Please model this.
Amino acid sequence: MKRWRHFIVLALLVPAAALAAPPQWVTLGTNSGPLVLAGRAQPANLLLADGQAILVDAGDGASEQLMRFGVGLGQVRAVFLSHLHFDHTGGLFAFFGRRFQTRNLEPVTIYGPPGTQRTVDGLIAAMQPMADKADTFAFLTRQQPADNITVVELVDQVTVRLGAIKVTAAVNSHYVLSDDEGEHNHSLSLRFDVPGRTIVYTGDTGPSSKVEKLAQGADLLVAEIMDPEESIERLAQTRSDLNPVAKLAVKRHFTRQHLSPEEVGLMAQRAGARALLLTHNALAPTSLEAARARIARSYTGTITFAEDLKAY
Ligand SMILES: [Zn+2]
Ligand SMILES: [Zn+2]
Model:
């Protein structure tokens, strides 16, 4: 048993160089929405700064992407969820389950909008049948699925300090439906002030003066991007049940609650962001250069389309 434990500990060590290096933003997954794409994982990011590894959104595949980048699950002590759409949370169950099965149970705090506690409670409840039946591995059962998992729900303009990192949250304009601004609808953009660098992550949002304010003077603005026309056409090709009324509703969501190339360019320019990194990107590869030109109509900084497992 001792040797087995030893192996697990070794397997989950993070390369020290990665944590000691200058602050980096790693796009673990750059896909958007529920569609499965070969070679592109769902939205997940890793902030390496101040000796910490922070997971920002946890779409499906986040744990494997972390390992591919060389960061063990036990090194992640904080997870920030921008909102509770499944493409941003789908990897959380595996993250919890793999930590549990490998006894990799260092404390982890899940930060997210209101509703995060309910999401996490549900995932922990889903782990319980396996934990209850783990008799064969009696030495595993001393731990319970909920052990060492803490949830902190974030409200508009709240700040969190993690060592030398200051995180500020702002409620954005994603999935705010008509006049319903109840707290269950909150979606967050996040500002990370780390030593020597400011990185702002839009999460999913439409145009938003609050996000522009949050991103003021950022060294790097990590933003979502969507072409509503292109996305609705792709959806129509794969969904025969998309009747005209549903199509209109989806188009309204895409148009008002996501960022077109023009809108993301305007946001970056108004914020004075030095560089723009585009992720949560459903654009066809053939559309990228046209999108870059559309962004550059209003934004004069550096424009980069993120790739999975690249550090910026
Ligand atoms: Zn999304
Ligand atoms: Zn969303």
